[in-house]
Design brief:
The protein contains 19 helices and ten strands. With 442 residues, it is an alpha/beta fold. The protein is globular and about 70 Å long. The protein has a four-stranded parallel beta sheet. Strands 2-4 form a two-stranded parallel ribbon. It has two domains: 373 residues, no CATH class; 32 residues, no CATH class. Helix 1 crosses helix 15 and helix 3 packs parallel to helix 16. Belongs to the galactose-3-O-sulfotransferase family. It holds the Pfam family Gal-3-0_sulfotr. InterPro entries: Gal-3-0_sulfotransfrase (IPR009729), P-loop_NTPase (IPR027417). This is GAL3ST1 protein.
């Protein structure tokens, strides 16, 4: 057998293994979930409580139907993997039709930083979809052409100072900006404008400019890099986002965000549980660095749009929570207790550990947690995505979307950027590239 076939065989075994691993689990858990979700909610209010009198019945809607049409914009470096697992688990439990990438390899990138092309995703025979949950830039026009008008939109963002540090490390931005200090964040924040001509990266294949240090989160949500200094445009755009989005999860207030999401989407408590073990956590020298007041003031001016984005949705979060009434915090405490118990159980359980039963409450019916539930709770994004696309061929080989990190590495090396991995591989075999390597002595 040719050694060239080894990687392909290994990948096939990995995908098949993931599917075989999750297939029996999903079947059992989905059946259990359907039984749990079948209790009568016709007399329940929007927060899941049962009205005690006619006045309460008038004050609250009498029907609460789970929202099964939604878009989760998976932003970069925002802690989105936790929410990514929750959304994929929900889609699997409820057998929702997901619009997903046409290839199984790569980072499950639907499209970034461009609008998805027709050949970039798997089409259903009737072109009907329930949810979108992969990495992509928010594009309202395109999304509304694929999903109905009553679709719910949500995403996740984090404080801009924390986002800068993780982006600096992940994309190797100090090397792009030629900063050689041990604390590149500190060096950068002393004068961000000094590095503007270096921090901007141009993706030539789609003629889009992106800056990993400046308004990265707003960019993922559709705001153009070139308008970084246009305060009025930013205010208008973010005001539209606030109107378009059902809610925005905040990493620093994740539990509050998830309880609010559950209520607004009319989901079950078990739908928004998550493994408390950190995912994709990376260590680097300047991770715990706390910028000075002056440095933060510079960052607020530099990342003005991201700060406006965060401040707007931070205020929106607490306003919507206040509208829920005082029992929101009762549910929050209940959710945190249940999440801690379930997460601890799943991380410590042994083969002979009996299943955990969570009693019913005013916010949920009784449910059981066993080995199958734990495997799904602790799963990562990629295996769940492989299950979602289990019946789909791998599509056009090599046409997986290159993630921004790969194209950033190419820019740092002085190479062109590409949309698809096969284009980059073709370039790396070209005479021009080989000559360049020879001149550089690589």
């Amino acid at each position: 057998m040719s050694k060239k076939l080894y990687p392909a065989i290994a990948f096939f075994v990995l995908v098949l293994g993931s599917i075989l691993y999750f297939l029996p689990i999903i079947g059992r858990v989905r059946t259990s979930s359907q039984q749990i979700l079948s209790f009568d909610i016709r007399e329940r209010g929007i927060d899941g409580t049962i009205p005690e009198n006619k006045e309460a019945t008038k004050a609250l809607p009498t029907v609460c139907s789970p929202r099964r049409k939604w878009v989760f914009i998976k932003t970069h470096k925002t802690g989105s993997c936790t929410a990514g697992v929750i959304t994929r688990r929900y889609a699997i439990y409820h057998n929702l039709t997901v619009l997903y990438p046409a290839v199984a390899s790569g980072p499950n990138m639907l499209a970034w930083p461009f609008q998805p092309a027709e050949e970039d995703y798997v089409h259903t025979p009737d072109e009907q979809y329930d949810v979108i949950l992969n990495h992509m830039r928010f594009n309202k026009t395109w999304l509304r052409s694929k999903l109905p008008a009553d679709t719910a939109y949500f995403s996740i963002i984090r404080k801009p100072d924390g986002h800068l540090k993780t982006a600096m490390n992940y994309y190797n931005l100090p090397k792009l900006m030629k900063i050689k200090s041990k604390n590149p964040v500190q060096t950068f924040l002393q004068d961000p404008w000094k590095y503007k001509h270096l921090s901007e990266a141009h993706f030539d294949f789609c003629d889009i400019t992106w800056d990993g240090t400046r308004n990265h989160q707003a960019f993922d949500l559709g705001y153009p890099t070139k308008a970084a200094d246009d305060t009025e445009q930013a205010r208008r755009y973010i005001s539209e986002l606030e109107a378009d989005f059902t809610t925005m999860l905040l990493l620093e207030h994740l539990d509050e965000s998830l309880v609010l999401l559950r209520r607004l989407m009319c989901w079950e408590v078990r739908d928004v549980l998550y493994d408390t073990t950190p995912k994709n956590s990376r260590s680097y020298a300047y991770k715990k660095y706390i910028p000075t007041a002056e440095e933060l003031a510079n960052l607020r001016r530099w990342k003005a749009v991201d700060y406006l984005l965060y401040d707007t949705f931070n205020a929106s979060l607490w306003r919507k929570i206040a509208e829920q009434g005082p029992d929101f915090y009762d549910e929050l405490r209940y959710f945190q207790e249940v999440n801690k118990r379930v997460s601890t159980y799943c991380n410590e359980r042994q083969k002979d550990t009996p299943e955990l039963t969570m009693a019913s409450s005013k916010w949920n019916s009784e449910f059981q947690v066993d080995a199958d539930v734990c495997k799904l709770l602790k799963a990562e994004v990629s295996p769940l995505m492989k299950y979602i696309r289990k019946d789909t061929p791998n599509g056009r080989k090599g046409y997986d979307i290159l993630p921004p990190r790969t194209n950033m590495a190419a820019i740092i090396r002085g190479e062109p950027t590409f949309k698809y991995s096969i284009e980059q591989k073709t370039y790396h075999k070209s005479k021009a590239y080989l000559k360049r390597k020879k001149r550089a002595g690589i």
